[in-house]
Amino acid sequence: MKKEQNKTSIKYFFFGILLIITYQIILPLIYSLITSPLDEINNFWISNFTPLGYYLIVTILLCILFKNSLKIEAQDFLKNKKSYIKKAFATWGKGILFMILSNIIIMQIATNIAGNEEQNRMILQELPIFAIITMCFIGPFIEELLFRKSFKGAFHNKYIYATITALIFASLHVINGFESYTLQNILTNWTQLLYFIPYGSLAFFFGLTYYETNNIFISTLAHCFHNTLSIILILISGILI
Q: Which of 153, 167, 205, 238 has the fewest other C-beta atoms within 10 Å?
């Protein structure tokens, strides 16, 4: 019985890893080859909607992959929407508290913001339509499916599950913040690694909530709210400056 359980856990773990690799490397490569002729066209709408197309395709593929459980969870969310919305905001509240506290400590050491956040600000400035739609809505949904849902069967302890998925989530967000992955660049910008803590703390509570409720739409709502609030604050700070 334990052997079968271990086999199932390993299967789900590698399933989640494979999905992330496909999302991060394989699909972007295929999509960039298909859309490469559009790169030469300097048009605001094409520049915004070409990358948006990739995220829409990923969303459709993931919805097909998880269609049965998503249908059940969507019905469950609508049936219990009041209590689940409260749960989503409670989850976000716990996560953001740890995120803020860790960021305050990191700011005493690091001289710059998280590289991933800096990239997001640049994208928001250059491709506002794409940035707002993906960061506020599509992106959180995709990330909850990839980092939370795909790993659900891999762990049988909610704290181990929440910790491991948070580390994977934080790792990719921190790695995406580096301009290059050379040893020299990583050593020069070693303080970026400290952002594992704020990214991971938020992701930990998202994972914990999903494990406890088995409803991905709760953590997705919390994730969407967090990203939307972040975008609003960035836009307001830009206007004030």
A: 238
Buried b vs exposed e over 172-203: b needs ≥16 C-beta within 10 Å? bbbeebbeeeeeeeeeebeebbbbbbbbbbbb
* Cα(202)–Cα(222) distance, integer angstroms: 10
Alpha carbon distance 99, 97 (integer Å) = 5
Q: What is the pLDDT of residues 70-116, one digit of tens each?
A: 999 999 999 999 999 999 999 999 999 999 999 999 988 887 788 78
Cα–Cα distance measured from residue 53 to residue 158, given in angstroms and rounded to the nearest whole number: 35
> What is the C-alpha separation between 171 and 180, in angstroms, rounded?
15
Angstrom distance (rounded) from CA 210 to CA 30: 32
For 14, 139, 190, the CA distances from 99, given in Å and listed in that order, are 29, 20, 19
Compute the distance between CA of residue 166 and CA of residue 175 in angstroms, rounded to an integer: 14
